[in-house]
Design brief:
283 residues; alpha/beta; Arc Repressor Mutant, subunit A; D-Maltodextrin-Binding Protein, domain 2; five-stranded mixed sheet; 22% strand
């Protein structure tokens, strides 16, 4: 009948032989000397041989102990080699991730923290740009993944719809006989399209007085009283009933079809789940 030798006991046994004593092995293995002694008694019981002999205050290997030491080193080496081979290799590489300013302000921090915790070896190159630019970069292969607002004909995977509201200056008064002054993103822009479409449908006159490629620039212009704009409802300071109702926008995830690393799948899954579970609070 075969006997099984405990790996942990063999590791302690080798440490004793290499360090020259029970107490030194105990310090390295963070075990008491009595625990080390108990382990060696168990190993002697498993092997059926006396492994140590006393020489004064020292514990020396017996002949069976020296024989076992050779096998123990080989067993531990093979064990550690197998464990290393089976250990998952941390994913490496770089992911180019694009997001809109709206998502960057609300949901990006959680996604980055969650992904970095699970994939510390992957570098993220994050770009915050308007949706139209993000989608162009996906099409050109300059981004691997993007969170952008969807327009008719886009091929992104929808994540959900979000309502738009008017954002107006604090002292806004709707003009009776003058065109409505608009503060908008430069085209193409799904928000711009929603605003113009709503005003045209309501037969209201309008004119664009300010454009900007950045969201902070738009909000600063509205705060300065230059005109009105439209953003997601959570940003709205005043909802103006007299202005036309705006159609919702759709947030979507866009992926470069040429980019297929496993880490990209993980980033997409984390982002998708977080947005779908917290859609109204994120953007």
């Amino acid at each position: 009948m075969f006997k099984n030798l405990d790996i942990d006991l063999l590791r302690t046994f080798v440490a004793i032989a290499d360090l020259g004593g029970f107490s030194k092995a105990g310090r390295q293995l963070h075990k008491t000397q009595s625990a080390i002694s108990l382990q060696m008694k168990r190993l002697e019981a498993q092997s059926g041989s006396k492994l140590f002999r006393k020489a004064g205050r020292r514990q020396l290997l017996t002949e069976p102990g020296e024989l076992l030491l050779n096998y123990a080193r080989r067993i531990l080496s093979l064990n550690d080699e197998a464990a290393a081979a089976l250990k998952p290799v941390p994913l490496q590489g770089k992911i180019r991730f694009g997001v809109t300013q709206d998502f960057a302000d609300r949901g990006l921090a959680f996604v980055l923290a969650r992904f970095a915790d699970s994939h510390p070896g992957v570098r993220l190159d994050v770009r915050v740009n308007p949706s139209c630019e993000l989608k162009r970069e996906i099409a050109k292969g300059k981004l691997d993944l993007a969170i952008a607002f969807q327009e008719p004909g886009d091929s992104g995977d929808p994540l959900g719809k979000l309502q738009l509201s008017w954002i107006v200056p604090e002292q806004f008064i709707e003009p009776d006989d003058q065109p409505l002054k608009l503060v908008l993103f430069e085209p193409p822009c799904v928000f711009r399209d929603r605003v113009i479409s709503a005003l045209e449908k309501a037969a209201m006159s309008w004119r664009i007085v300010y454009t900007s490629p950045s969201l902070p620039g738009l909000l600063a212009a509205v705060e300065a009283g230059l005109g009105v704009t439209a953003r997601l409802s959570h940003r709205s300071r005043n909802r103006v009933a007299e202005l036309p109702e705006l159609q919702p926008v759709e947030l979507a995830i866009h992926r470069n079809p040429q980019a297929t690393p496993a880490a990209l799948d993980a980033l997409e899954n984390i982002t998708r789940a977080h947005i779908q579970n917290n859609l109204q609070d994120l953007v």
